[in-house]
Structure prediction request, 248 residues.
Amino acid sequence: MKNVSKSLGIIERHGGKRVTELSAFTPMAEAGWRTAMFLDTEGIQAMLLEYPGSGVGHGNGGSRIGGVEYVGIGVSNIEDSVEFYTRVLEYDKIVYRTEGTYPEWDQLFGKGRFMKRALLRRSRKPEGIFRHFLRGGMIELIQVEGNRGKHNFDGRKWGDIGFMELAFDVTDIDETLEEVARKGVSLAAPPYVQDMGMNTHATFAYIRDPDGSLLEFADISSLPVPYFMIRLFVNPFVVGMAKKLKLL
Prediction:
C-alpha cells in the first residue's frame, strides 16, 4: 500500500483496532519499508505494509488500501521451510534472510524475542487465470525462539473464525499436482470440483507445508462473464468514464 498511517484511520473508522503504531519494517528499513499491525472486527490480526514502488493501492500517497501483498507464516525450522517454499512452490527469490530482534513486533511476540526470518517471492510472473490481477505476493517465514505451542490449525474446523488456508491460483491442477508429487509432496485432500454459484466453477486440492499449514491450489474453469470483460470492468480509465457518465 502507499500510506499506512491514513489506511489505519480507514480501518479504525470501520471498527478495526490498531495493535502497533507505524514503524520501520526492520529488515528493509534502509529501503524505506514501513509497517503497522491491526485487528479486524473479529479480532483477527493483520499487517499493513508500505514500501516504495509497491504498485498496490492508488492515490499517489493517499489512503487507499491495496490487495494482499504479504503473508507471514510461523514455522518451527526456518531451513526446512525455506527449502519447501522455494523448491515446491517456486518462491525462489529470497528478498532477505535475517535473524535477531525486531522492535516493530515487540507487542506481538514479547520484547526482545529472537527470531529467524526469510522473505520470499517468485522470480516468475503469475501464470494462473487471474495473472493480470495477482502479483505473486511475498511469503515471510518466521521462526520465533521458544515457540513450541500447538499449531493454530489444531482442532480447527472449516468455518471457524480466523484464517484457514493460503490459496494459489493455477491453470492446470492435474499437471500442478503431478509436479508437486514428483517433488515428494503428498496431498492433504484430493482434487474436487465445486460450484461457487453464478456460473463459477473451480477444482481445488490441498497440500501441507513441513509444519502442517494448509495450502490450497485453485483452478478456475468458468466465470460469470468472459475474463476479458472482468479486465475491462476494472480498468481505471473505464471506471473513470463510467463514473463521469454516472453509470457507477
Summary: The two ends are 25 Å apart (CA to CA). The first strand starts at residue 17 and ends at 18.
